[in-house]
Amino acid sequence: MEEPLDEEDSTFINISLADDSELLPEDLNPGVESSHSTMMNADMDAVEAENQVELEEKTRLINQVLELQHTLEDLSARVDAVKEENLKLKSENQVLGQYIENLMSASSVFQTTDTKSKRK
Question: Could you tell me which residues belong to the region Disordered (predicted)?
Fold first, then answer.
């Protein structure tokens, strides 16, 4: 079936029609497909690198959000503790204020006196 090729026809490739399933595109035009494959590999590498950068950025942002959430929880707990302490101190101040008022009213030193009646 295959005829010998002349030197002029040496640019053609002999292709067996027996089994086409194993024939790859680079077998048909090796130079073009090889450069095309190299470009595709370079593009895939660039896309993969870009995806890796995006994944790292997402991971960094997620970690930052989690850290901020923990900080917010800590601050919220601190605010609650300060509120409780403030209420406790207000209550103690009221008790102490009432105690001081009672002491002052019971003591003769703090009694109001009429200074005009004592001078006469």
Answer: 15-40
